[in-house]
Amino acid sequence: MRVLVVEDDLQTAHYVRDGLTAAGFEVDVVDAGSVGLERARREPFDVLVIDRMLPGLDGLSLVTALRRDEVQTPVLFLTAMGAIGDRVEGLEGGGDDYLVKPFSMEELGARVSALARRPSMRGRDEARLRNGDLTLDRLQRTVQRGERRIELLPLQFKLLEFLLLHGVWGLRFDPRTNIVETHISHLRGKIDDPGAPSLIVTVRGAGYTIRAR
Fold first, then answer.
1. Closest CA to 62 of 38, 88, 91, 44
2. Tens digit of pLDDT for each residue in 138-149?
3. Beta-bridge partners for 202
4. Could you tell me which residues come within 8 angstroms of residue 4 by beta carbon, excluding any fewer than 6 positions away?
5. CA distance 141 to 130
6. For position 164, what pLDDT does the model report?
7. Phi-psi region of 145 (alpha: psi -120 to 50; beta: other; left: phi over 0)
8. Which pLDDT band, with edges at 50, 70 and 90, does 12 fall under?
């Protein structure tokens, strides 16, 4: 499961990253609210851990902007702002949980795990699958790379959807036919930017995987 930590204090950021990584999470850390906002808009994270007191765009404004954009990724505010009014403001502003510094890593890990297990809260965000600037909308059946709209055949759409959801497409097809290789080749031609490395990588003996962006 992927966690994005938005924290400008270097010592705290390293402590949280190391603790959550040891608990089995894949953790990305950024130190500015504006950067966290763009990452959370573009990429599929399971949980966001956000400090309220950030340089530039503060944590509460960051979450408000995400909710306005209908990004429903669960948010845990991790902050020194511990007054009752601060907690209420954070939860009313779009946060799902609130943990005050200083904190125990054991409690943080438990809370992050609990948020990651809430599929109903992630449903709307999961309708839009993202990898960098590549977006697949499962409801509208559309695909975009940045501002470029991409038209895919039904099987190409399913292949891309599967790769974005599961990370890898195994070699579970008849070895006497190259139908999957053909569709993967055509899919690469449509979603890749000219001159850039392909998003879809062949894993020898295993299948295909999508490069994390």
1. 38
2. 878 899 998 899
3. 208
4. 27, 28, 29, 30, 36, 39, 40, 43, 45, 47, 48, 49
5. 13
6. 84
7. beta
8. very high
